[in-house]
Amino acid sequence: GKEVTDRLFDEINWIIVHSLKAVQGVMASDKHCFECYGYDVIIDDNLKPWLIEVNASPSLTSTTAADRIMKYTLIDDVLKIVCPNGEIPDPRWNKVPPKDSMGHFDLLIDEELAAQDQHENKSRSVSGRLPRTRPQQQWK
């Protein structure tokens, strides 16, 4: 049902986050460019996801109508982020695009929020208070 499906997608999201964190030191971090990665995940009989491989610059060739729609939507969503409101972005612009321009992408982890929580948790653990938790933010 829905709970099992939600748990499966949450586990896939965490596979993606952990794989990116594992290589973050060697990834280019330039606000003037972006990369698209393709994740191959297999789901076993117990509905456990397994990462098979990560493709840098995955093929956008389509073989079926559903594949063509999915890849067209991906390209459209990427362009909405790269060129918010259909305009060429100012290179000095240092803002997160508005949520409505994020298309079908989900924000899996907010690094600034995670760092802030980590700092607050360290402070609280010293004082003996319990750390607070924050719900995961998602843009759909």
Structural commentary:
Helices cover 40% and strands 11% of the residues. It has 140 residues and is of the alpha+beta class. It is globular and about 45 Å long. The protein starts with a helix and ends in a 13-residue tail after the last helix. The model is unreliable at 129-140 (pLDDT under 50).
In what range is the share of β-strand residues? 5-15%
Sketch the major β-sheet: 2 strands, antiparallel
Helicity level: 40-55%
Q: Using DSSP, what is the number of strands?
A: 2
- The CA-CA distance between the termini, in Å, is 21 Å
- What order do the helices and strands follow? HEEHH
| CA gyration radius, whole angstroms | 18 Å
Write down the overall geometry.
globular
Q: Are there runs of 5+ residues with pLDDT below 50, and where? A: 129-140
Mean pLDDT across residues? 81
Q: Which class do the helix and strand fractions yield? A: alpha+beta
Strand order of the largest sheet: 1-2
- Number of DSSP helices? 3
